Amino acid sequence: MCGIYGQIAKSAELNVDNQIKACNSISCRGPDSQGLVLGSSINQKINYIQSNNVNYGNSKSSNNIFLKHFRLEILDLDYKASQPMVSEDKRHALLFNGEIYNHQELRNFLKSKGYDFFTNHSDTEVLLIGYKHWEEKLFEKLDGQFAISILDFEKSLTLLARDPLGQKPMYYYIDSSQFTFSSSLIPIISNLGVNKKVSKESLNTYLRLGVITSPNTIIENGYKLMPGEYIKFDNNNWTILDKSLYWKINDFAGDEGEFNQEEFNTLFNNAVDKRLIADVPIANFLSGGLDSTAITKSIVESKKKSTSYSVVFDDKNYDESLWIDEVVQKYNIPNVKENFSFENFDQIVLEAADSFDEPFADPSQIPTYILSKSISKNFRVALSGDGSDELLLGYERNAITYDSKFNGLLSFLSSLNDFSFFSKYGVGRKFTSFDKSLPKRYFSYFEDNNLLKLLNLQIGKNTLYEKWDNSLSPLKQIQLFELSVYTSEFMNTKVDRTSMKNSLEVRSPFQDRKLVEYILSCNLSDKVLTNKKYPVKQYLSKDFSNQFLNREKKGFSFPLYNYIYNDKSKLIEHFLSKDSFIYRELGIDMNLLIKNKNKANAHRLWKILMLELWYIRTHE
After folding, report:
1. Residue partners of 165: CB distance under 8 A and separation at least 6
2. Which of 384, 379, 380 is nearest to 367 (CA)?
3. pLDDT (tens digit per residue) in 363-387
């Protein structure tokens, strides 16, 4: 994993020192080495290369292209694999964040076509030569998690691409003077300085959902590449020539295929195996749940070495120690436990929030950050179970919204949600969940329109409907939404930002492209709702009891209510004062949410606290 940043200035020569300063904030994504390329879109050539293995050209030349790379060394640690990687003819420069799991297969094919390689087993060079052979058709051939930028100096083009499920981020910003792209929005914001403008539409989306969905960002003219998308930008004519999905998740959704447990087991084991390929030691997350346990089983059976890491809690509502210990004993694996504590908790909240380049409200960022920080002390790579619940419909909301027994009969209750009384005490989910409309019932688990009402803000456009496919069966509609929205926008944002803040690469076998395509094509039937995640249970059935496999799921979070209302946090005290950004800039007064103490309002306060911390980071 790495951090990438690039800028093309439209006419004026860019200031190299300012660009370096702007992008230093992403050095945590790649602390092992750095590289720089300067060039000109006007002259269509590279003027300067500086990396571990090359010093070429003159940095004082007139340059309007700046490319910077921060490397986290995981595969092919040789200096020849450094980035930005430049082709021998100096026509192409490539920046890459991620891992390509089928790079050896692609390398062998390209060698058969007569291409020579100068690295031993670098997946970056496979991309560079692969672009020369396939051009943008390269992206559809990749199996991995990635964000890629390619500067084609010969054709004066910039290509950006993002992996199918959005595991790796790619931001870009365009106006009349610059086209900038990055692994993080922070360097773009830093580069804009006083010219940055917060998007009111995106702010509205955040307050409603707790995240800003692709392709939008919190700033105007700033965008995220969609999962499975690439764009082609003309560096001279200053226009986006092409913006396309090279991988469309909807293409694989259907009910024709019959599910086969053996095929699932094979695909899952292959997904784990390919994520164990690295030139550095590997760890794995172990929550004690079914997903991380399945990954642990697969690692052990592959005879590969891994150390498991867990977060444990004093609060029994969150603690999974009993199950963690059972897995550790069963597979005889090393395990490191991190104890969750409210001691110095404000500092942990500040550190975790600092991971995010946009406001992000999911409280499970805290234990994920704690675990990532612990693992990163000894490892650079870890496997996690993210994506399983979305792929296999493992959430309680999946069954509740699918079951139409009462939906429509009690839809009048949904209208009660308009009364201000309910706005003060909850998000209105219990009422909206009775609505006739499947997407409306489902969106009730994500949206909080009542918070906008309390803050006297317009509800605005609902972007979730754009991501819902009514042409599919109800079960597939839910499954597709979970994968394309919840996995990509919520889970992957959380995992990427908290792990990369700690210079840790996280790999998720349940988001394997072949596994996802297979499960989407299968008719899992209603059984997957009544016997949650039965493919994973069957995979583990010979090793664990029914009690282990069928226990009630505990969320990976922390006692948020206690922190907000009971712990007398100095961070919360400042946040509630009139010195806060949200009060001064947005006029948001939290007194109503403080007076009416409940879990819904605790989550609302947390959401607005994350917004406050983002404002402080980017505006002071």
Report:
1. 145, 227, 228, 387, 483, 487, 488, 492, 511, 513, 516
2. 384
3. 999 999 999 999 999 999 999 999 9
